C-alpha cells in the first residue's frame, strides 16, 4: 500500500473544512437494483412536455460551490440545489470533449471513437455523423432547440456544426477555449483566429462583450421570443470558468482579500457565472416557463488546480481519473420533482441525461439502441434506486502506457499499462497512468504552491499500474486495496475486457494545415470541402483530399514560413 505524508491534516483539520460532516459512509444506493434495458425507455406522465434548461460549466472544481464548503460565493447555485435534488454520486469525464460527447450521444467515448484526448482545432474530426444527438431526439418530440456557449465537438466541415446536429440556433465558440472579450483562440504560436459564431456565420460584431454576459443575454432573448406553451430545450455551455482567467473588475474586488491571485480571479469568474444562472432562472419565471421547467446543472470535468480550481478533499484534478477529475457538481431543480429538498446518493453518469431527458420529453428511444445511459428520473424525482450499477470511466489505448504495467499484472487478461478506469458498485479500479495524483487543499494562501501543499503529496507507490478503492467507504482514494483484494481486481479487469471488446477504433487524426484561420478569413471554422474524403486507417491518419493543387499551395506556404522562421531564429542566435 502506498505511504502518504499527512502530517499537516488531522481529523480536526478535516472537520474544520466541514467534510467529515458529510454522509460519505452512507451505503451505496446502487446495490440490488434492476438493470432491465426496458427501464431506459420509461417515460413519466406529464400534462405537457417540460421545458429543459441544461447548464454546463467548464472546469469548475468539485469544491468550488458554496454547498460543498467553498470560500467562493455561489448563492444562486446553493439555493437552486437546496430546493431541488443534489447529486452527490454524480460522475462526468476528466476533460472537455469526452463529457460533451457523452452528454450529446448518451454513449461512452469508446463507442464514438473519442476515447483519446480532445478534438483539437486543426484536426479533421468531429462527433461522428452517424450518431443521433440529444437535440435531434428532442426536435423529433416537438421541441425548439437552442445552444449557447462552447461546442468543442469538432467543426472541420459544416455537417459537424451545432446547427447541423440538432440545434435550431447557436451562439458560441467552436474550439476549446477563447478570450472572454476578444474571442481569439491560439492553437500554438502564430496559429490564432477569431471564434464566436452566430449560427454558421462568424459573429464579428459581438467582439468585446464578456462571454458570460453575452450568453446569458442570449438565453433571455430566446425565452422572451418563444411561446412558453411550446416546449423548449436550451443547452447553456458556459465558457466559464475555463482559462484564461478573466472577469469584470467588480467581481474581482469582492475577493480582494484572497491572497492567491489565480484563485482570486477564478473565484470572481465563478460568482459571475452564479449570477448568470440567477438571471436565467429569473427569465424563466418572468416569461412563464418556470412552473413547467427542469433545470439541470452539471460541471464538465474536475477543476484545474493550477488555475485556481479546487477539488478538495478529492484526489487529483482535471485530466485525471482520480475522483477529483471525474466526480462532478450536479443537481436538478424543478417544480416537477416529487421529492424535493434532498441529497441523492444514486449513481448517475453524464451519459444518463440523454435517455432521461428524452423520456421526460415523451420522446422515442427505440431508434437509438445500445445507449450507455439510463433513465434516472425516477431516482432523481422519487428517490428510487438508480438503474445504474457501474460506470466505465474510459479505456484509452493511445495514452502513454505506464512503465511498470504488464499483462502479467493483469492476470493474463488485461495489460495494466493501458490507461483505464471503471467503477462497479462500490469498487473503483484504475490501471495504467491515471494522471496527477495529489490531494490539493484550497489555494487560499499567497505562496501556493508551497511547502504546506507538499504535505498532501503522494510519497510512494509510483511504481504501480493497478489501484483499487472502495469508493463508498473511501471517497478520497487514500487506501489502495489492490493487494488485499485481488479477487475484486480480477472481477473488474474482466469488466474492462468486456467493454474493450465493444470499443470502436480511436478517431484521432493528424492536424491539417488547411485549418489555419489565415486560410479561412481569420476565424476558426469549417475548412474541408464536400469533395474531401476521410481515410482514418486506424483512426490516426490525416484527412486526404482530391484537391491536390490547393493542398500543394498550402504545403508550399507552410514550408516558406518554416524556412523564414528558421532564418530569423538563426539571426537571433
TrEMBL record:
The gene is Arsi. PANTHER family: ARYLSULFATASE, ARYLSULFATASE I. Gene3D superfamilies: 3.30.1120.10, Alkaline Phosphatase, subunit A. Residues 50-362 form the Sulfatase N-terminal domain. It comes from Sakesphorus luctuosus. The keyword Ribonucleoprotein does not apply. InterPro entries: Alkaline_phosphatase_core_sf (IPR017850), ARSB (IPR047115), Sulfatase_CS (IPR024607), Sulfatase_N (IPR000917). It comes from the Eukaryota. This is ARSI Arylsulfatase. It holds the Pfam family Sulfatase. One of its GO terms (molecular function) is metal ion binding. Belongs to the sulfatase family. Its cofactor is Ca(2+). Transmembrane segments: none annotated. Keywords: Calcium, Glycoprotein, Hydrolase, Metal-binding.
